[in-house]
Amino acid sequence: MHLSLTRIISSWGAALLLLAAGNAHADLFGGLSKALQESGNSKAAKIGSVLNTSKSAFGEVSEEQERDIGRQAAAVLFGAAPPLDNDALQRYVNRVGNWVALQGERPRLQWRFAVLDDNDVNAFAAPGGYVFITKGLLLTMQSEAELAGVLSHETVHVLRKHHLAAVQKGARLDLAGLAAGQAVKNDQNRAQLEKLTGGFKELYSRGLDKEDEFEADRMGIVIATRAGYDPYGLPAVLQTLGAMNPQDGALAFMFKTHPAPALRLERLAPLLTKLEPYAAQPAVGGRFAEQLATLKK
Amino acid sequence: MTVSRWWLVLPLMTALPVLAQTATLLRDSELKSEPFSNASRVTAMKAKQTIEVGERRGGWYQAKTSTGQTGWVRLTAVLLGSGQAKGDSGLASTAQFLQSGRSGSSGVTAATGIRGLDSADVVNAKPDPEAVAKLDGLQVGSDETRRFAAEANLSSQKIGYQPAAGK
Description:
Chain A is mainly alpha-helical. Chain A is built from 15 helices and three strands. Mean pLDDT of chain A is 79; it is low at 1-59 and 173-186. Chain B is of the alpha+beta class. A five-stranded antiparallel beta sheet of chain B has the order 6-5-4-1-7. Chain B is extended. Mean pLDDT of chain B is 76; it is low at 8-18 and 83-113.
């Protein structure tokens, strides 16, 4: 009993359940699904039904659940910055992204890559295989190897489920708050969905743990090198970012949510020495420049 | 004069043109005669010393010291920029990187420049599930992906992950 309770508390679905209800009741997820259908939001209803299936699998988030949680997270990001209206460039970034994703441990995920129409310099990932890069970051780059380096870094956040774990952790912190006597809303089911969206808003505005970022750098450069690119793509991007004026508003959000470029380079240095035998792999400058030309028009 | 002639050669040598720029050494490092770790040493350089760098070849930048010696320096041994082109922010912020581990100003909004996507935009975002659904139209098959890679002579390598330094 004690063991199963621990498992329930550690699970994502149950954390939401306890958040809203204070006491576990199996009908709640079904109730969420119903309420969402009544609200006329079929996408949201699907989330409810996925949470419903989680009753039988409290310990681990299934791939399907992860996908639907990721859709919610991706919708938040698109709400903050819309996708760039340039199909050719979107397709190009998807090809590079899919190629690097094939080199990781989850090649069969439905990977989706998107360029955000924003001049800020940043990139994001969401559970289930979503990766985003801003137009502003693309415009600082000189080669496909640099793009591959950044996309590889982001795919690691998905491979290692960094966001899922962080949001789960956040929900537990909220649990403590509820126990301390927060008012329970009338529409508990709606509150659950808002918790999910709210959790991602909070996470994206705060950023991941610094160690998660270092891990994404470390594994990311290996993935980009596995894909046949010059291993120095990501380090070159970090150099560019480090050389930009840190007072530049386009960098503020990325700098707030990531370790400093110099520290990231410092951490990568020993690994890069080991990747030296691959240093002659192509950076693919020409194809990248052609694609970016459509952006600069 | 010799200084300018040295830099004139660079654009001809590089596939990815990079303008000559100032860089600051992060640690004591050697200037090498060639972009290889076992190449001969041209000179020893000190941490915080300012040099000029140009073309990148693999993990090395072509480099020139203030006394005019030329060679190659490891990419990971330098940080581009010195503050000379950016008022007083550059060098001070390099020091800030090294001391605090965080770059830039601590606030969300910056003193200069255009404020872009930030925490407030994310917190106030109205989720857009339709835009997410549209991404499915960009699906790329694995055959197409492999063809795309082959076009650029990219071939897969088997390389294991490395543990974090010191672990």
